[in-house]
Amino acid sequence: MDWEERIRTARAAGLRGLGLALRALVVGLPLFVATVVSIALVPAGIGVLLAPRALAALRRFADEQRERGQAWSGVRVDRPYRGPARGLRPLLDPATWRDLLWLVVNLPVAVATGLVPVALTAWTVFGVVIVPIVITSGAEGEFWPVAVGIGVLAAALLVIVPPLVLELHARFSAALLSPPRRALEARVDRLEETRADAVDAGAAELRRIEKDLHDGAQARIAALGMTIGLAEQLVRTDPARAEALLAEARDTSGQALADLRRLVRGIHPPVLAERGLVEAVRALAVVLPVPTTVFADDDVRGAPPIEAALYFAVAEALANVAKHSRAARAWVTLRAPSGLLVVEVGDDGTGGAQVPPAGGLAGVRRRLGAFDGRLAVTSPPGGPTVLSMEVPCGS
């Protein structure tokens, strides 16, 4: 890195540090006061309305610092939250209280981060610019050489220190805004478990496809070849019989094609690839015997593997509604809060739904777990039954 680039980097770091200081004073301090006051007012009732907004703003402020630390200093900070910031749920999340602690401790740290480049700049201007002008004007003073030396030293430090100070601020923030070690260990354990489940599910899916091909399309295509061969032998001696065999072969080819189409739909439905998750779920709801309403946000989109996992999860849930719930109506809700795809499938049936280890819902849980997703089932006796599925999908 040449000196010109070093100077540009130092200047950018100094301006960013100054911006962090101003942001901590102008935004961070009022946000801390508003959050603490709204939490304190929760028992009085008014805090129930104020706290969710303050907590959501606190999380956004902390997320912005995580992004800045990554972009400016290369310090990665993972999000430690247990779920989306809805209602008063963040109060039960330890990460919220660490965010609040960071917010108040960050105030002096950010101010110091912004003042260091300002102080170095001031000493540089005083020692390298002002003092020589004073000396050339004939003013006497024993401390002028010392001031010039300090100015030169400050100028050298001004090229080196601001990026280091900015990185120190990013590492300080990471210490409070990162998941604790025990949470990271639990996440590693969960990832190992979901990876094993994904491998098992992939192997089971391959076996299912192989079985469907062997018992369906492959058997029909083999029969088709035999029928055409027999017709070929009879075409001269018994044309009528050969014609009948060819008609039978045409029917068999149609059945084999239908088997292949069903197999493809079981791997990745065309409607899902062409029209997205919402329209694919609406197509499922249309053919369900139980009247089903689909509610969806406009921006419900995700990566194709995630959409496929949620599609088959909804298909399994709706199949259970039709088979076991005795419901008069059902509904599906698809939402896309920050960084998540959330799908809820509910019905007004008899309730009592469970997740047996070898059942379809257990397979849904494993399928979602491969994407770090979660499945929650609420089904008291007498209903209603609600299956909630959450899958991280990025911004």
Automatic annotation (TrEMBL):
Q: Identify the EC number(s).
A: 2.7.13.3
Q: So which domain of life are we looking at?
A: Bacteria
Q: What class of enzyme is it?
A: transferase
Q: Which Gene3D superfamilies match?
A: 1.20.5.1930, Histidine kinase-like ATPase, C-terminal domain
Boundaries of each Signal transduction histidine kinase subgroup 3 dimerisation and phosphoacceptor domain copy?
A: 205-272
**Catalytic reactions on record:** ATP + protein L-histidine = ADP + protein N-phospho-L-histidine
UniProt domain Putative sensor: residue ranges? 24-176
Q: Which UniProt keywords apply?
A: ATP-binding, Kinase, Membrane, Nucleotide-binding, Phosphoprotein, Transferase, Transmembrane, Transmembrane helix, Two-component regulatory system
The residue ranges crossing the membrane are: 20-51, 100-131, 143-166
Query: Mind listing the GO molecular function terms for this protein?
Result: kinase activity
Name the UniProt record assigns to this protein = histidine kinase
Q: What is the lineage of its organism?
A: Bacteria, Bacillati, Actinomycetota, Actinomycetes, Micromonosporales
